[in-house]
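Many introductory courses stop at the sequence. We go one step further.
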Amino acid sequence: MDIFGILYEDDDQEIVEFLNYQRRTYTLRMRVDHMTLWDDHDFRIRFRISKVVVLQVLEHINNQISSSTDRNHAVTSINKLLLTLRFYATGNFLITSGDFLGVSKTTASLIVRDVSIAIAKLRPRFIKMPTTEREISKLQRSFYQIARFPRTIGAIDCTHVKIQNPGGPNAEYFRNRKGYFSINVQTIACPNLKIMDVVARWPGSCHDQTIFKKSQIYYNLINDKWGNSLIVADSGYANSLHVVTPFLNPQNDIEELYNESIIRTRNPVERSYGVLKRRFPVLSLGLRLKLETTQAVIVACCVLHNIACDNNDIDPPILDIILPENENINIEEQQPNGENARQQLIQEYFSHL
């Protein structure tokens, strides 16, 4: 048989399959009312936050995620939110989260995208740096009470959130030093573990200092928006007039005292990562979504974390799985940028303690 005969046979087969195609029967799956089915304890185990927090979040985003009609058994707003939270809580495939609420994988994907974007849009309300002198002073006192480190308004660091290969010509930019694809997420935390700023748009190969210097926080610091206030960081950042880091090799008792104080003072940002990733394991286990949706999920988790903290829901339920530890990939001491606050603190404060 010649090549043309083979091609014609393939075309005929496609036409026959098209003509014989039968659409799958429309099925309705049972949708459980999880708000009434579970008590508060079991609800927190399954969705990682309390019912009070869920209802508060729903109040803020209901208009953005509600269906325009009830036709065809449209998914309710509360079920959309619970499906998204279940996805955050398990890190499973979308089809698993869909089965939990009785919807298809496609519907689950759309719901996770829409709800994540709606929650992420709450960022200006729930994730913010201090704006008034009173808020700045209160924050400085809170940090001072940890280890007597002065003038501090925030602890900064970065954490890697594992993602699937985003594809395209720039995919390798997302491969970090450990060899897997990730987004390098910068956050600033306060003593009560709330997140005051989040940057979730940089690929895993970017250094922490690069992300910081391209952020709005850096611009505000060098323009003295918070006066002489300080941000404490690890040695992956450069010392400056507003950012201070530990000594990698302290030479005397004063520098060792300084190191002990700053390490304890910046501990909240490390603890916030632990709480955030235990509450929403999807951030540890990895996200298999489009890049834009992944970024929305990260910010949404930070918003939910802060709302939970506002409701004294700080410690998430214990998991029955072991999550990967938070990795500080980019630790390499940066050289001070000329005059810096670390030297000033050593000379004017720690030498007199």
